[in-house]
Known about the structure:
Shape: flat
Radius of gyration: 16 Å
Strand content: 15-25%
Strand order of the largest sheet: 2-5-3
CATH topology: Trypsin Inhibitor V, Chain A
CATH architecture: 2-Layer Sandwich
Distance between the termini: 42 Å
Order of helices and strands: HEHEEEE
Structural class: alpha+beta
CATH class: Alpha Beta
Number of strands: 5
Amino acid sequence: MKKLAIAAIVAAVLATATSAAALYRTRDLSSPNTNSPSSTPPASSAGLVEVPDLTNTNLFQAGATLIAVQLKFKFTHAPSDTVAKNSVISQNPAATTPVAVGTVIELTVSDGPT
Length: 114
């Protein structure tokens, strides 16, 4: 029974690491300036989607949500006394904004308290 529990823990750790690696690879590194506004492709080149509300969402879940609606993301970290570590503090563009498929959404993610 103990070996089964250890195997389950190892499988969970590997699944988490694989998911984290996949999200890491989807970051937008095309712009060296992480504080620049996102560039939105022209609406005529693709359909529009509504930006989901990601505030207070874990970074990994936020990334998965954006990928599911065909949006890209990049993130920066900032300290926060009110938002849990690795959760989204803010986003740009704001939630419910219609954007073209493939738009880069900028997320500010909490490093926890200073």
